[in-house]
Amino acid sequence: PPAKRQRTNVNAGQKQQICQHKKAHLHLSLAEMRNWAKTTLQIEVGTTTMHDILKNSEKWLAVTANSVDTIKSRHCKHPEMEDALFMWFTEVRGHGATVSAEFRERGICFIVSGVQDFAYFKGWLANFKSRWGISHHRLHGEADYSPDDIYNFDETGLFYKLGPSRTLATAPVAGHKKSKERITVALFCNASGTDLRKPIVIARAKRPRCFGKTFQPTLYTEYFSNAKAWMTSVIFQEIIRAFDHDLRFQGRHCILLLDNASSHAVTGLQLTNLKLHFLPPCPTSSIQPLDTGIIRAFKAHYRRQLVQLYVNCAEEGRIQTVDLCQALQMIRLAWRNVTATTVN
Length: 344
Prior knowledge:
It is a single chain. This protein is an alpha/beta fold. It is about 40% helix and about 10% strand. Helix 5 (about 80-95) crosses helix 6 and helix 9 (about 295-315) crosses helix 10 (about 325-335). Pfam families: DDE_1.
């Protein structure tokens, strides 16, 4: 690749001279102005920089001789630190890493941790990127996915029998032991909210007694079981293979955003129509879509049904409890009640 042009700091006085020369020679092109600056001012100015200077010519022509030296230039206060930071940036990009905001700030904090008299702030970062010619770019070489084809998958624990912990009363009331029966619910939807796939439930029993002989859990959810009611790599791969098969049947190609949970292992998994994209470790809610309020809305809809069920039980003099059959039906309905507006 061609050698990178060394950056040149253009001070306010030089910018004023450039604008004055252009004003006197309006016919000159950007390339001719760059050649003039190189021969007359002994500075090499990039095409974009030249364009920006001339675009703000009114500002630079208005600068007085007394104020030229007082205008801040973008000289680097810690050149060795910035050299190290740019070397780090070049290295991680050379390995194909996507330098997101979170990833970038980790690198900055690591490199500047030993630098005294330095305070990280967004203004410095903007100047650093400007000094080194770093800007945002769309990733090419990958398909541009529409919101309909961008999916997110995440799990959450659900204490499906746990009712409210507070109540209205005229006097203090005796409490009762809280249920700790937990199941795992995995939710799966696209970015536009047009495809809320069937919820996935993982419980402890393969076929609880409440199912009887006729109840079919797959009418409401995808149902799995193991001793701890947790997601495992075996269950995960079965889910992903089924989704890839559906996409292949529909003739669609989609991308699935996932966190780096150990249960999301994909060793030996062969997919044709689905691309898996793993989010950075320990993702925050800002980059884990289902954590931005979607799971919370789902649980709120479930809790509303559970409270109504318990009220009905109290009115009819029955024990306030719920079995897994009822829970699966309420999970399905709660997920359907999550609107596309909430998702996107």
